[in-house]
Specification:
CATH topology: Immunoglobulin-like
Number of helices: 1
Distance between the termini: 35 Å
Helix content: under 10%
Strand content: 35-45%
Oligomer: single chain
Number of domains: 1
Structural class: mainly beta
Length: about 270
């Protein structure tokens, strides 16, 4: 059943989804790139292959379908308080008529997670995040999924700078989706050296309420993929890496006008 908040959001989207945000020049961010809004035709592109067989969210990439996925790395890093560690993350995404499939493969010398509650703060731990806007535009909203390595979830709808430049997170979203994790190392033990972890998402198309999810071949959607990297149990902060550059924006990963695009390929 839809909550009142999500129903109201869909009504807002029906009114605003035809509008895009104009590009603009601004300051230079921490990546050394000129700050700007991205408009249609400018966003970097990820080509999502269509899955040719079933995929199970178990954190193990043993299905033949994954061999067709484009492999990319997270090359944009930041941390707020001190020099960061740039640990490698590989990302893959596929789709079919029923689901979107994500696979994160993360090198990690210290696997760490403390959050265990639902709709808590898994983003302070080793965590994989996915933000998606099911149009190829910079409408100021998106769906968000954040899961840490012990499976604690935080999912929501974001209304970016919705009221008085204040961003609103609606945690009542709570869609059904599957996540599997594997770890090669010991959790929350700073005395040894770990090797890494994987996370695999299966997100049903039905979770993206209010948007068209049929006949997607050739369609483009806006999205961002993010990794949070907490490298010590007692460390209050973490390093962040992203698939697409954020151009600083006060070190915020949520501005939808900085997202790249996925294109649904028909193999």
């Amino acid at each position: 059943m839809r909550t009142a908040a999500v129903t109201a959001l869909i009504l807002i989207l029906n009114v605003t989804s035809s509008f895009s945000q104009a590009g603009q020049a601004g300051q230079t961010g921490q990546t050394g790139q000129t700050e700007k809004e991205l408009v249609i035709g400018e966003q970097p592109l990820y080509r999502a292959a269509k899955a040719t067989g079933p995929i199970v969210a178990d954190g193990v990439m043993n299905e033949d379908a994954w061999k067709e996925a484009q492999v990319v790395t997270f090359d944009h890093f930041f941390r707020r308080d001190e020099p960061l560690e740039k640990q490698r993350t590989e990302f893959r995404m596929m789709w079919d008529e029923r689901n979107i499939y994500l696979f994160y493969e993360c090198e990690d010398t210290s696997i760490t997670a403390r959050e265990t509650g639902f709709d808590g703060r898994p983003y302070l731990d080793d965590c994989a995040e996915f933000f998606v806007l099911p149009v190829p535009d910079s409408l100021y909203m998106h769906f968000g999924y954040e899961v840490n390595v012990v499976g604690a979830r935080y999912d929501y709808v974001v209304l970016w700078q919705f009221v008085g430049n204040r961003t609103v997170f609606i945690p009542d979203y709570n869609p059904a989706y599957e996540v599997g994790v594997t770890m090669d190392g010991t959790l929350n033990d700073d005395t040894d050296t770990d090797r890494g972890w994987t996370m695999e998402y299966v997100i049903p198309m039905s979770a993206l309420r209010g948007f068209n999810t049929r006949n997607l071949a050739g369609t483009r959607w806006a999205f961002q993929a993010v990794r949070q990297d907490r490298n010590a149990v007692d460390d209050r902060f973490r390093s962040t890496s992203t698939l697409f550059p954020t151009y600083d924006v006060a070190l915020d990963v949520h501005p939808p006008y900085r997202f790249g695009l996925m294109e649904f390929m028909d193999n």
